[in-house]
Amino acid sequence: MKKRVPVIAGNWKMFKTRDDALSFIYQVNTKVPAKEKVETILFVSPIYLRTLVKRQEDDLRLGAQNMHFAEEGAYTGEVSANQLTNIGTTHILIGHSERRQYFAETDETVNLKIKTAHKHGLIPTVCVGESLEIREAGKTNEVVKVQIVKAFDGISKEDALKTIVAYEPIWAIGTGRTATPQDANDTIKSIRADLAELYGQKVADQIRILYGGSVNPKNIKDLLAESDIDGALVGGASLDPQSYLQLVEAANNK
Ligand code: PGA
Q1: Is the CB of residue 213 below 6 angstroms from any atom belonging to ligand 1?
Q2: How far is the CA of 179 from the centre of ligand 1 (A)?
Q3: Catalytic-labelled residue, pool 96, 98, 105, 120
Q4: What letter would DSSP give residue 6?
Q5: Is 133 part of the annotated catalytic residue set?
Q6: What DSSP line would sit under 134-154, residue for residue?
Q7: Ligand 1 nearest-atom number relative to CA 216
Q8: Sign of the alpha-carbon dihedral angle for 141, 146, 148, 154
Q9: Is the CB of 169 under 6 A from ligand 1?
Q10: Which residues contact 104 (CB under 8 A, 6 or more apart)?
């Protein structure tokens, strides 16, 4: 089996000014490993994406945190895939639980956005994950499977291979509470089995599945030591350049 290249993706959410972002990128740009060893992606605010894209070195990837699925239209406040690629954006985060929770993102819109992303050559990172209630009811795998099946509905094998999945239990996001590496790995294995049902084992074995939720430089090693965790989607601990580089370094040693 071909080794899956680990991914360390930072999700800056609604943090950082343009000045903060520039300072970060100057500190990190030349220090990240070759993209064949670790894929480093930063999901940033769209207002300074262009500024960062202009200064990005080849091994650091940049993406937006959301976009609309429509080509264009009367959607005040939204950003299209075409607008993103036009300024050099290569990656897009889709279906983050905060988008699902606060901005009415649904499994259906997630699916439409994945299709739009692939149509425009944007690499999507698609988030799935369960609430604490679901976890405690023992229904995590079932619920996450529905999210996966709906997200990938109508997505070809070729496009599935280009898609990155992020498993983020909602109760672990920004709470300091991480899933144990074993629990995270079990759910990620179950997601891989879901993908195998859809696309066959060979394809499923090549799709990168990340863990997200209170990942930091202290817990990253144990998470990455698990068989099926291919990297991390990181919020809080991706805001500081040194902390981000430590996460990347851990992945480089995976
Ligand atoms: P956190 O956020 O690392 O701050 O928990 C993760 C995420 O929301 O992607």
Answers
A1: yes
A2: 12
A3: 96
A4: P
A5: no
A6: HHHTT-HHHHHHHHHHHHTTT
A7: 3
A8: positive
A9: no
A10: none
Residue 36 catalytic? no
Task: Return the number of other C-beta atoms located less than 10 Å from residue 56's C-beta.
Answer: 17
The pLDDT tens digits along the chain (254 residues) read 668 999 999 999 999 999 999 999 999 999 999 999 999 999 999 999 999 999 988 899 999 999 999 999 999 999 999 999 999 999 999 999 999 999 999 999 999 999 999 999 999 999 999 999 999 999 999 999 999 999 999 999 999 999 999 999 999 988 888 889 999 999 999 999 999 999 999 999 999 999 999 999 999 999 999 999 999 999 999 999 999 999 999 999 98
For ligand 1, pick from 16, 233, 234, 247 the residue to mutate: most ligand atoms within 8 Å of CB.
234
Spell out a b/e string for 162-183, using b for 16 or more CB atoms within 10 Å of the CB, else e.
bbbbbbbbbbbbeeeebbebeb
Domains and CATH numbers, the chain: 7-252 (3.20.20.70)
Query: pTM for the complete prediction?
Result: 0.97
CA of 166, closest atom in ligand 1: 9
Nearest CA-CA partner of 122 in 176, 76, 68, 170: 68
Q: Which of 39, 98, 168, 226 is catalytic?
A: 168
CB 100 within 8 Å of CB 139: no
Ligand 1: nearest atom to the Cα of 215? 3
Which of 119, 125, 103 shows the shortest CA–CA distance to 42? 125
